[in-house]
Amino acid sequence: MRATWNRIDPAAWDRLHRTAAAALQQDRAYGDAMAGLGTPLLRAWVDDGGEPVGAAQFLVRRIGGLLPVALCSHGPVWADGTPPARHTEALRAIRASVPLRWPRVMLFTPDAPLEAAGAFASMRRVMTGHSTVRIDLAREPDAIRAAMHGKWRNRLAAAERSELKVERVGSKPAQYRWLLERELAQRERRGYIALPDGFVEAWQQARSAGGADRDGPVLTLRADLGREPAAGMLFLVHGEAATYQIGWVGDAGRDLGAHNLLLWQAILKLRERGVRVLDLGGVDTARGAGLARFKIGTGGEVVTLAGVFA
Fold first, then answer.
1. Which CATH code is given to the segment(s) 132-304?
2. Which tens digit of pLDDT belongs to each residue from 78-97?
3. Rounded Cα gap, residues 146 and 132, in angstroms
4. What digits encode the pLDDT tens for the residues 281-301?
5. 37, 45, 169, 179: least surrounded by Cβ within 10 Å?
6. Alpha carbon of 21 to those of 79, 117, 252, 259, 275: distances in Å?
7. Residue 205 CA from chain centroid, whole number
8. Tens digit of each residue's pLDDT (9 = 90 or more) over 9-58
9. Phi and psi, residue 152, nearest 5°
């Protein structure tokens, strides 16, 4: 089994990522965007006699300007049907051949619960995993709606009866920049950490350059109340999966359940374009109880990931 570094076939990477409905952090465009914003990038492609086994994308940072730390977030991505034993061999090949001098640190956060992360059994678990909410879009809309918690579904129904009007925003950065600016102000006010400024535009450019998304990789929806925007949501579409990236709501929109309405409309639109999984992102019931309740109320599956392995 062989790990090849930084000499990848973009089309092969995209096929592997799409078939697995893999996480945003292992999307090729994600790596290109982060590299363009100044974060060093490493990519490993693992094959066995020419047959793909998996792929792993690492972002590299240096502690104290010296010690390199390579993080494979939500990865590696495994080829469909490869058994866990081959995953273990692939991890060995990746760790043995990474082009970083000693001393170095390699970290993996597999995109699976602990019970499904057997390939990492020989590694040290240094941190427990966070939880996220994922909605299975392969189900029929009636089934998705029926799985919602009662209060969440009632809020949606009330929003549908309200004066809110949902519009799809154009996919050019200038057409959704208003939402990015409001989210940035919200981020500064609440003091939470997110991806670097400019990431969404850089990711869209990288994704579009690969020609992987016929309908465009960014889906932005706006809920209007009269002539004023009451709320907005932005989703990143990567293959057969999508990630909820940004949300903003004003006071009037919050009172009317605008985010319930926007998320439901996004679910319908993403299903139409063949997306199988929608990841709503992390839930933190201690520091973000309201947002956690909103995500869990959708009826999506709460997945607790395995953690960080070194």
1. 3.40.630.30
2. 999 898 889 999 999 999 99
3. 20
4. 998 877 778 899 999 999 999
5. 37
6. 11, 17, 36, 25, 8
7. 17
8. 999 999 999 999 999 999 999 999 999 999 999 999 999 988 999 999 99
9. -65, -45
DSSP string across 226-271: TTEEEEEEEEEEETTEEEEEEEEE-HHHHHHTHHHHHHHHHHHHHH
How far is the C-alpha of 295 from the C-alpha of 284, rounded, in Å? Answer: 10
Sign of the CA dihedral running 188, 189, 195, 198: negative
- Give the three-class secondary structure for 302: strand
What top-level class would CATH report for the domain 2-123? alpha beta
Domain ranges of the chain: 2-123, 132-304
Q: CA nearest 233: which of 196, 186, 276, 274?
A: 186
> Which amino acid, residue 225?
L
Identical topology for domains 2-123 and 132-304: yes
Which structure tokens are listed for 50?
């020419």
pLDDT for res 240: 95
